[in-house]
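The methods section describes the discrete structure representation at length, but only in general terms. An entry of this sort, consisting of the sequence and the corresponding backbone structure tokens, reads as follows.
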Amino acid sequence: MRSPKKKPFSASRRYSKFKVSNWSEYNNILRNRGRIDLMIAENLSDGWYEDIGNHRKRGGQRIYSDKAILICIQIRCLFGLKLRQAQGFINWIFEMSGLNLTCPDYTTLSKRGKDLNLKPFVESYDKEFDYVSIDSTGVQTFTGNEWLENKHGKRYIRRIWKKLHIAVDSKGNILANSTTDHNKDDRSELPVLIKDINTKELLADPGYDGENIYQALRARGIKPTIRPPNHELAAKPETERQKAALYQQKRGYHTWRVKNDYGRRERVENTFFRFKNNFGSKFLSRDDKNMENEMTIKCHLLNKMLEIGRVISMPAS
């Protein structure tokens, strides 16, 4: 029997509808998200080949620069191509544009993609954000064994996936990301995500609930807005987490949500929707390090889409 559909918190959520007020401009923005010159680089030929000069080393010399490797992987992630397809696509672009360039071989892209030194998201560490939202989502990895195991009568093994953890600001820009195994606890990645972020408040779901999390955030002067557990933690609440749990138990979750403006956390859920809508829910890479760099590159591309332009919506009358 199917569970009944959850009722909305209020009538305003049930009947709230929005319309796009800048549709003509947003239509052009969506077109520009497929342009390589706006999304990745204006001039692909600058610094494409490695400048060896007098710094020759023993053994084979690098032909392509790190910038060339990064641009090729960015094009691959943007259009969801396999490595061989990306190589052919990029070579076709150079041929049609008349550039005397060649794309690195697909094996070169795979090997050197592991060693890319990707820039951090937060370049200005002095900037203070009003609030930051964090969460994680699953991204499926490639195994290729499920069909064969089921065919030969073996016990079904659930497909393996990895977790993508992100921290976003109030505008939906990704400030930090990390990739872990599916069995990694979300709370263990909190220090990694907010290490270089200066914020006044942190919003998170119950997966980040814990006394150690509250203490770590308060030690940095960050207000924790984390949904507390449904049960009462102590008869006489002493800690901030215990008081929040008692308040929610007596007044209800909706009251606690309105009091703390918890709806702001939906920004990170919307970011995951945009991420999977643009790039899918599967990895293109198979090596762990390449998977990690792939997620970082895709997060950079998602920020670039917002930089090009974003939709402006308003409540429909």
User: Anything to note?
Assistant: Strands lie at 18-20, 128-129, 132-140, 161-168, 174-181, 198-199, 201-204, 223-226, 313-315. The longest helix spans residues 288-308.
